[in-house]
Amino acid sequence: MKWKTARSILDLTTPKVMGIVNVTPDSFSDGGRHAGVSAALQHCEKLIRDGVDILDIGAESTRPGATAVAQDEELARLVPVLREAVGLGVAVSVDTYKPAVMQVALDLGVDIINDVWALRWQHPATGSLTATQVVARHPACGICLMHMHGEPSTMQLFAMQGDAVAQVRLFLHEAASELQRSDVEKSRIVVDPGIGFGKTAAQNFALLSRQTELLGSGFPLLVGWSRKSSLAACAGIATGSADRVEPDGRVVASVTAAVLAVERGASIVRVHDVLETVQALRVLNAIR
């Protein structure tokens, strides 16, 4: 299986590691650490040395309770970093849901659009460009469609009800099918079940234990368990005030979840701890 992106075709025969670069002051795990252009680019270079396959750069936190960032502010954070990152020799993804930001990123040479809203968000201005229009008129960019129940500011207050696996499977199938009806090639699309996005801990772990059920539509699966609160709760890791921990407090649990996700068919894992994940996946690959 392969994932077609703007500048390359990623061979998913072996799992790929997507490294998180938060150019934000308030992301739940590492907010503020890489907020400046220099710090963000140094982190990108470190992740590349650690073995990353894809850099996923975002400038707006989508953690539970997060508030939206104005488009101009998001672009001010992103553009200087993206302009340099596209020249670092690996695929670059932009983590955004705003169509105008997607367009600017693609014009700068970004390879992948990673959208937590699965292209559903629209600017309130009547007649404004839609996310589907942006990606459909690009000849080759990769797209990741994620399931999110609700929206970031309230999603954990009103979590999903019922069987999350069935609901997520249906949503992702319909979102990908709709994108194909806009003449986007299937080879450009991957899907993400959205661990932690409006789901209870039990629902998150159901999505992992029954993850193979999400593969039936034939789209590669991208999974992001890294440092999620469900892991902390399961592993008995103290979270402290406001659900904050030191960045390395959830590494072991995160790497374990990434390996389990790959064992169950995930093609890409989105992680903070690239070196540790790369090493663990090499062990998994050796026994395969």
Summarize the model shown.
By secondary structure, the chain is of the alpha/beta class. 37% of the residues lie in helices and 15% in strands.
Structure report:
The chain is α/β, with parallel strands linked by helices and 288 residues long. It is 37% helix and 15% strand. It has one domain: Alpha-Beta Barrel (TIM Barrel), CATH 3.20.20. α1 crosses α2 and α2 packs parallel to α3. The radius of gyration is 17 Å and the shape is globular. The two termini are 17 Å apart.
So, CATH architecture? Alpha-Beta Barrel
Oligomer category: single chain
Structural class: alpha/beta
Whole-number mean pLDDT: 91
Strand content: 5-15%
Read across the widest sheet, the strand sequence of neighbours is 8-7-6-5-4-3-10-9
List the keywords.
288 residues; alpha/beta; TIM Barrel; eight-stranded parallel sheet; two-stranded antiparallel sheet; 9 helices
SSE blueprint:
Elements (H helix, E strand, L loop, with lengths): L1 E3 L4 E3 L4 E7 L14 H14 L3 E5 L12 H15 L5 E5 L3 H9 L4 E4 L15 H7 L4 E5 L17 H18 L7 E4 L8 H9 L12 E2 L5 H7 L15 H13 L4 E4 L2 H14 L1
Parallel strand pairs: 3-4, 3-10, 4-5, 5-6, 6-7, 7-8, 9-10
Antiparallel strand pairs: 1-2
